TrEMBL record:
Species this chain originates from: Sordaria brevicollis
Name of protein: Uncharacterized protein
Keyword annotations from UniProtKB, A to Z: Signal
Region forming the signal peptide: 1-18
Domain of life: Eukaryota
Length: 196
């Protein structure tokens, strides 16, 4: 009897741990919360959670936009609680941004070192033309910056939460943490698309 109870408990615990926190509810009576790219990144980084795939994350974002009263698009240069500054030109397609952030989050705590400025990751078309990129810029006089990839991914989630509307996203945000003699690092998510 004890082993049967343990098996039932283990099965229920597995479902509780494996449920992604960024999933969008399909039940008509439950409140549907806006999808959070920041929470999706946290899910990827949490070994106890099975996170949505990039494709599922994009679908969940569009489901939440369609199911909730979407707020008006933020003004260019506006700030939200995470201090992301949105762009109105040189924006990336949502799917491209999600793909790049997913790749950065998959690298976890592995670090990346750069001097002053660097392109971290990009998406190119079949001809090799860059469609979207995420770059980093050091915020002061440090000669080099060593940043965990997961920190870049979190900042990318901040940008997407603040600056995603229509079919594109883009902006800048401070990477959480201190990565070089007290100086911060900022990421820029951009692309080749203008407008919303």
């Amino acid at each position: 009897m004890v082993s049967l109870k343990f098996a039932a408990f283990a099965t229920l615990a597995a479902f509780a741990v494996a449920a992604p926190t960024t999933a969008v509810s399909s039940a008509g009576t439950e409140e549907i919360k806006p999808f959070s790219f920041s929470q999706w990144v946290d899910d990827i980084l949490n070994p106890n959670v099975i996170a949505l795939t990039p494709e599922q994350a994009v679908d969940a974002y569009y489901q939440s936009v369609n199911a909730t009263d979407a707020a008006a698009a933020p003004e260019a240069g506006s700030l939200n609680k995470r201090a992301a500054t949105c762009r109105t030109i040189s924006r990336a397609l949502i799917a491209d941004a999600v793909s790049m952030i997913n790749q950065m989050a998959a690298r976890g705590q592995a670090t990346h070192t750069f001097s002053i400025q660097a392109t971290l990751i990009d998406v190119r078309d079949g001809l090799g033309v860059q469609r979207a990129s995420i770059g980093a810029t050091g915020g002061g006089g440090a000669r080099s910056y060593t940043v965990p990839w997961e920190s870049y991914a979190r900042a990318g989630g901040f940008v997407m939460d603040a600056c995603t509307y229509g079919t594109t996203t883009g902006g800048q945000a401070q990477v959480p943490g201190d990565f070089g003699a007290g100086y911060g690092v900022q990421i820029t998510l951009s692309g080749i698309y203008d407008g919303f």
